[in-house]
Amino acid sequence: MLHVTGDVRVDGNISAKYQDVAEWVPARPGLGNGTVLVVDPNKDNHVLPSAKPYDTGVAGVVSTQPGILLGEPGSEKVKVTHNGRVRVKVDARHGSIKIGDLLVTSATPGYAMRSVPVNVGGAAIHRPGTILGKALEPLESGLGEILVLLTLQ
Question: What is the pLDDT of residue 134?
């Protein structure tokens, strides 16, 4: 354990066992690892579990062991990952999830699902502002947890 008071400068690489970047964000206590989160529209600087499909308020995922953790801890805060590889709760009841599929919030609270593109002028596009990340593992059916490369878009 290294504790530094003041600035730190690293001229090399920083290595971490886990591959996600998270920060402490105010939220209700007790949210489980892998829970998909959205910005709370009723509270400044808060997040809550997602509850509707294709939510443009998507903010990240609860991570219990981030590789890099920013901010100040608190009893009413959770570690929110917004970048990197992390396990995510997913719902494949609306379509199986394959490696490489883009994921969005689902109607199942705190879960992601496969994004289905819409046709706009003959081009299939995914809804802007709704993408949570890209599936790195498949899930054929039901509810589960898979590894996801988080790339909020």
Answer: 97
